[in-house]
Amino acid sequence: MSAQPVSAAKPFSDRDPFRPQTAIVTAGDSGIGKATAVALAESGLDIGLTWHTDRGGAESAADEIRGRGRRAAVARLDTSEPAGVAGVVDQLADELGGVDVFVNNAGAGVSASVLELSLDDWQDIVAVNLTGAFVGLRRAAQQMVAAGRGGRLIAVSSVHEHQPRVGSAAYDAAKHGLGGLIKTMALELGRYDITANTVAPGEIATPMTGQEDVDPRTVHRPGVPLGRPGDAREIAAVIAFLASPLAGYVTGASYVVDGGMLQMGPQAGSHLTEDDWREG
Description:
- The structure is a single chain.
- The protein has 280 residues and is α/β, with parallel strands linked by helices.
- 38% of the residues lie in helices and 13% in strands.
- A 7-stranded parallel sheet has the order 3-2-1-4-5-6-7, with helices on both faces.
- Helix 1 packs across helix 6.
- The longest helix is centred in the middle third of the chain and has 29 residues, at 119-147.
- The protein is globular.
């Protein structure tokens, strides 16, 4: 689908208020992605969601969406192979009848120092977290421009979009790049009434952090001001806000949702083992 030319875009005064009907959420099979897909369904949207290795998780999420009276479509997506990303976005948009909200949630990481990080690992992490994200966000934007109804682009980044972490060079670089990409898209797509923002989680109790089905309120984190990891639903709530008409004047922003971790520094937040610092 080709993008609508700039000259054909409606002037702001002639546009209808943004009323999202459909959303695509990548990596919607578990964790933040699944929580987001369900939250958006509860907001009244039909949902397309993708999975990479856990089809059962995606089908379970789709059943939850349908249980809330919304349509759900499921497709496999491997963002480490960026050439195939646009086709999956098109497939889900065709099934849903368009895409008003696109949430890029797929991501991966590897722990290795710069001296030990292999080129293959670097390329894989950058492909998943940045290049694949670019292709998906761009295709969704093209769909939105052609439809002429406005839209919402939301990328799940990380606190490491803002501050680095030892042993995470590829991940840090990709998330920094994702933040820059979103800011540029905000500049370029505002004329089409499309907003672009990131949500930057800290440590969240999900399978990616080895905390599947863990109640974060039972886990003590001395280095986080709120004293615990986050719940995936707490990230989903912020994404749902950014996807809504209420966030119509929010673009180019990064919403950090980390329990205050960044105020401690990225190493202190996850590595402090005592609460002494709270006493001043």
